[in-house]
Amino acid sequence: MDFIHSIPWLILISSVAKTAFLIFGVVLPLVSYTVYAERRVSAFIQDRVGPNRTGFPLTLLGFKKDFSPILGGLGQPVADAVKFLLKEEFTPGHVNKFYFWLAPVMAMVPALATLAVVPFGDFLFGQKMVVADVNIGILYVFAISSIGVYGIVLAGWSSNSKYPFLGSIRSTSQMISYELSLGLSAVPLLMIFGNLNLSDQIMYQAQHGWLLVPFLSSGQFHDFHLTASQIVLWPCVFISFVVFTISMFAETNRMPFDLPESETELVAGYHTEYSAMKFALFFLGEYTAMIAGSSVIVVLFLGGWDLPFLPINTAESSMWHGLLGGSGIWFGLIHITVFFGKVAMLLIFFIWVRWTVPRFRFDQLMKLGWLYLFEIALANIVLAAAILAFLK
Amino acid sequence: MAYTVRRPKLTFAEKLYLPTIIGGLMITLKHFKNMILGRTKVVMQYPEEKWDSHMPEYYRGAPTLVKDDHGRERCVACQLCEFICPPRCIAIAPGEIPAKSKFAKVEKFPERFDIDTARCIFCGLCEEVCPEQAIFLRKDYAITGTSRAEMVHDKAKLYELGGVWTGLVHKWNPKK
Prior knowledge:
heterodimer; A: mainly alpha; two-stranded antiparallel ribbon; 12 helices; 2 strands; globular; B: alpha+beta; Alpha-Beta Plaits; 2 domains; three-stranded antiparallel sheet; 6 helices; elongated
């Protein structure tokens, strides 16, 4: 019996609840609607219409009319998911079965695991809105998200076929070269925060202004003033932001750097041999990685869940008070909405860039990564360090 | 012969690459905005909007049989269309017009007239060969069915699609 009492039930249950809410309540719906947004936005950019027909087939459930709200086509993700589930799961005879089955999992799981440390809200019902509030936050993100490349490499290797193989080779070298500038561009921020914990980084930004937009934050409106250090450090933060975002595009295989996939040259790149749900897992993994990447950018540069004029909850103020709850619960919910709103805006930006910029040639990509971004990130660290040392 | 491709001279801003990307983003944003505001009109929403009004008079769609303004069926079951039809999609069973009919001298009429639209290639040879101006290719192009049998248009369906056609030559009318 002692064993049962020794288990911290509250933490266990709240962690499970938060994980379930984050994955099934937010991220997976967000992924499917990001796919929809991708199709719709790309259509608009190319003067087309995009999927605007599929509503929710309520007539199948005995209702009078199908439900097809404002934009139309909002049922498309559901239809796509059903299609992927019902398609034939075909495994070619010439593949290495074990790794062939492992690869889609390796593509999906790290992307989801990254989200564990991302604080998606402040407090709700006395609970901190982050699944794992660990002190190595950003390091964990870099470590886990770089595992995602194994999914692609294993897929290309186990497929035993030229095009996937070429895709995975490209992916390997691309990831290695961009991982470096991704990590280095975050170092100046860590020097400014003086902290690796993502929740504490957001709290810092709530008090001192969001890093990229230093005049915005909930703490600043009480006595508004831009400190000299914010103004001097802003160029460093901006350079970091640009390098970090570009590296994030490469990390998530998004358009200017989608060489592992490059449909026009490599059929479908690393997932050429995949079908049905295994292919869908790659697809979902790519978009989940996009969401994870956007979340990290939001946390590091755009103040996370922080919104000007909205008070930040403490553990006590967010407890359940009476029938409708206190205002703290509403603030908590708004903070969660704000966070995913910022993420959604970044996702739209990702999509926008994808349908604007043509793909890099492979040598251009390597040149950009090793000769420019890496050096810029390094110089930026030195610059930020010098400024911080001078300000101290 | 080998020759040197002349590379464009890039300005500093173009070499930096980011300003040109922002320029590109602005272009796509313009397209996006115009599409959202409904200023761009490129795509036609098919079942609701159709090309029908743009189609020329000579458009060759579904083959149909027509009746003339006297309500007489034009076809005399000469079977020329059946014989000329390249995919052999027309099947005619001639019948005899009863003697007491006003048009008894026409002698024959099609008892059955089937056109398999699943086989029809819309070449228009039946229309060209018809000596009676009885068969015409009309503007219907969306011919659908859930089975092969449903794609075979029988006489009733062909007349329903063809309707009445005025201004045709009336060579069988009784002389006054």
